[in-house]
Amino acid sequence: MNLFVGIMIPFAGTVLGAACVFFLKDEMKPLLQKSLLGFAAGVMVAASVWSLLIPSMNMAEKMGKFAFIPAAAGFLLGIAFLLLMDKVIPHLHLDSNKPEGVKSSFSKSAMLIFAVTLHNLPEGMAVGVVYAGMLEGHAGITMAGALALSLGIAIQNFPEGAIISMPLKSTGISRMRAFVYGAASGAVEPLGAGLTILLISLIEPVLPYFLSFAAGAMIYVVVEELIPESAEGEHSNVATIGFAVGFVIMMIMDVALG
């Protein structure tokens, strides 16, 4: 039961964020959007370091001075995987009218959803691989630590849910449809986490690589999308403050609960 709750917490964060479409009348103010994007980036960077990369290197301690290899190799593979997905999956980013990925006939709303779903994929993988490590009894990965990661990602999913549902409403669709689409964009997280846990027997021998792979995928999202979007135009300093707050909150949660 604790396992099910743990992998569903991040999805709950997306759902609650998407529900903002019922309470906010207008589009999200740029100042708020920038601060939330910065906050999400800070959470993801801290989670990548404390919940994924450090445990990956700790598990590889028996390799001695080469203990960095699983972390480095997995990290680069995670970057490469998201780079490939970014080139293949048709999607559209906020405040952009130029679709990315392969050419398609999908609507603007659909491609906005694909963009957020692409962001959520590595987060689901991260939650799943950490819980897989906890189930296998690896030192350094506890239930409290896994829960801290779930809560941290849920916190950063809240603004992501709002950031996707509000622009969808502005395209002319109903509030309910905007909410459903925004919430559905986060469904990939529990699905990805659950699949990772089901494959635990295959993942276990290479768990350090999977931990760092998830970290690389999350950092790709931060550097490629979240930071550039938060830094565009005026008030980029607000995004920097949001980043710092998100980073510190996730760091504290991981250390205090882990």
Q: Count every beta strand, where a strand is a DSSP E run of 2 or more residues.
A: 0
Structural class: mainly alpha
Helical amount = over 70%
Mean pLDDT: 84
* Rg: 18 Å
Q: What's the number of domains?
A: 1
Number of helical regions = 10
Q: Tell me, what's the shape?
A: globular
Secondary-structure element pattern, one letter each = HHHHHHHHHH
The portion of residues forming beta strands comes to: under 5%
For the terminal residues, how far apart are their CA atoms?
20 Å
Describe the sheet with the most strands. Answer: none
Residue stretches low in confidence (pLDDT < 50, at least 5 long) are none
Question: Please, could you describe this protein's structure?
Answer:
There is one protein chain. This protein has 258 residues and is mainly α. The chain has one domain. It has helices at 2-18, 30-59, 68-88, 108-135, 143-170, 175-184, 188-198, 200-203, 207-231, 236-257. α1 runs parallel beside α5 (143-170) and α4 (108-135) runs parallel beside α7. The two termini are 20 Å apart.
